[in-house]
Design brief:
The chain is α/β, with parallel strands linked by helices. It is 35% helix and 17% strand.
Length: 524
């Protein structure tokens, strides 16, 4: 395979959405060398880039107490109070300091020049800052442009993280077993060259986003395979709340379309849900109607579809709003029009889709995981902010807050201690006789994972379904591991191995938790 490549950096960040990008920005300002790894060829591509709705702050007639109350209520009472307090206290200041003043994100404004706050389900006030319906795209473009100005930040694009490097696990020194387990970097595949690089870092930050792609229907982009959760689990970090998978109630239903997200902001602007007969139905399921929390709306749609035998419901904005739809929702308007749906005149066919994981790698108020020198920020982490169900538009804010806090903590406490010899850490071992990857096997294995998760560990769960999911997935994991050990390493093979592990983590967590709460609903 040629000469092995070894790299060293102060901080390795895996992922570059708002969470990883915010951490990199804070670290670079304080003079540390940062290496950002992303599997995408274009560093803009991330969950953040696809976020439509907006970022929560405090509205004109708002208060921190009201926002805290809404977060905890939506989280079904199991949010971490300390984490919620940090989000609310730091959030508004960081939005103003970084997004508005530093990055100059062009948040939508009213005619009088004041900020235009939107409202979404679960919020008691209009408090969501947005850039029409492409908020994440606008933030990500400005964030990446800013990061590229720093000489102490380097990007490794089109590189896929395989596993975290840890001691004592990866050390060939037998005395390493007496050391405290810690993360010292990662093995990373250069997708263009097909070679694995060994990257050493004093600190590593996971910012890999979510896991929606383990489900048949998801609003998440291709990269949301759960890579970070799987790597952290294998490295020995603690994970929590993995059963709380939030399904977005409204994604575009069309045979030729990926599950394109239809933002909750449409319902905030007056859109109503109807069945295929044109009948409003949300009041049957929740006293809050169309503005009920996501989990309630998702189950209501699911139940309505099951009872009636329908494959979708309708979201009608045109009949219930006076806003200029094309101007307020240009991305949604243009995307739907591509598929022959004019949202200014007709309702949108929608179905629920896997959207957000409320659990993840357990971290403290600074993003520190249970594994020494490993941090996690953004969706891959579990700060406890979201409890059993995430309040709309809090995810971008959580990424901004914890990304910045992790960067600050590392910079303030930076100790480039090396209690190991790099020569004790072997380079990646390739199979002695590499088989070429068979795309048909990859495709079929993913189909089995996604259909199993959707049918047995999805919106509504039962003991029998979960037990079937666990049995099927464990059998499949055994086959995938065998396949992985004998096949030439590729991004798709790495993703498959990560995906099966994460599917089992979600299923196991759902099996252990017998109590229906928030996004985890058991119908036994």
């Amino acid at each position: 395979m040629g000469k092995n490549i070894r790299l060293e950096t102060d901080v390795l960040i895996i992922g570059c959405g708002i969470a990883g990008g915010s951490a990199a920005l804070e670290l670079a300002k304080q003079g540390l060398n940062v290496l950002i790894v992303t599997r995408e060829k274009d560093p803009h591509q991330s969950n953040t880039f696809h976020a439509q709705g907006g970022i929560v702050t405090l509205g004109d007639d708002d208060s921190p107490e009201l926002l805290i109350e809404d977060i905890i209520k939506t989280g079904d009472g199991i949010c971490n109070p300390k984490a919620v307090q940090i989000l609310v206290n730091d959030g508004k200041k960081l939005v103003e300091k970084i997004l508005i003043n530093e990055l100059k994100v062009p948040f939508s404004k009213k005619r009088d020049g004041s900020l235009d706050y939107a409202q979404e389900a679960g919020h008691s006030r209009r408090r969501i800052l947005h850039v029409k319906d492409a908020t994440g795209k606008s933030i990500e473009e400005r964030l990446i442009a800013k990061l590229k100005k720093y000489k102490n930040i380097k990007f490794l694009t089109n590189h896929t993280a395989i596993d975290l490097l840890t001691i004592p696990h990866h050390s060939i020194n037998p005395l390493a077993i007496y050391q405290t387990p810690q993360c010292i970097g990662a093995y990373v595949l250069d997708n263009e060259e097909g070679k694995v690089k060994t990257i050493f870092a004093s600190y590593t930050i996971l910012a890999t986003g979510g896991l929606g792609r383990i489900y048949l229907h998801t609003s998440n982009p291709e990269g949301a395979r759960g890579d970070g959760y799987a790597m952290a689990f294998r490295a020995g970090a603690r994970l929590m709340n993995m059963e709380y998978i939030q399904f977005h109630p409204t994604s575009l239903f069309h045979r030729n379309a990926e599950r394109f997200l239809i933002s909750e902001t449409l319902r905030g602007e007056g859109a109503r849900l109807k069945n295929k007969n044109g009948e409003l139905f949300m009041e049957k399921y929740s006293p809050e109607g169309d503005l009920a929390p996501r989990d309630e709306v998702t189950r209501a749609i699911y139940e309505e579809m099951i009872v009636r035998g329908d494959s979708y419901v309708l979201l009608d904005l045109a009949s219930y709003t006076k806003i200029n739809i094309k101007e307020r929702f240009p991305t949604i308007y243009e995307t739907c029009l591509k598929y022959g749906i004019d949202i200014t005149k007709e309702p949108i066919p929608v179905v629920p889709a896997a959207h957000y994981c409320c659990g993840g790698v357990v971290v403290d108020e600074w993003g520190r995981s249970s594994l020494k020198n490993l941090f996690a920020v953004g969706e891959v982490s579990c700060t406890g902010v979201h409890g059993a169900n995430r309040l709309a538009s809090t995810s971008l804010l959580e990424g901004l807050v914890w990304g910045t806090r992790a960067g600050k903590f590392i910079a303030d406490n930076f100790k480039p201690e090396k209690n190991y010899k790099p020569s004790d850490i072997p380079d990646w071992r390739y199979p002695e006789e590499e088989e070429e990857e068979d795309p048909a096997l990859i495709h079929q294995d993913w189909f089995l994972i996604r259909s199993t998760m959707w049918n047995y560990a999805g919106i509504i769960r039962t003991q029998k379904r979960l037990e079937r999911a666990k049995a099927d997935l464990e059998y499949l994991e055994h086959r995938i591991e065998k396949f992985y050990k004998t096949t030439k390493i590729t991004d798709s093979l790495i993703g498959l191995r990560h995906g099966i592990k994460v599917a089992l983590l979600v299923t196991d967590a759902a099996l252990r938790n017998k109590v229906s709460r928030g996004a985890h609903y058991r119908k036994d």
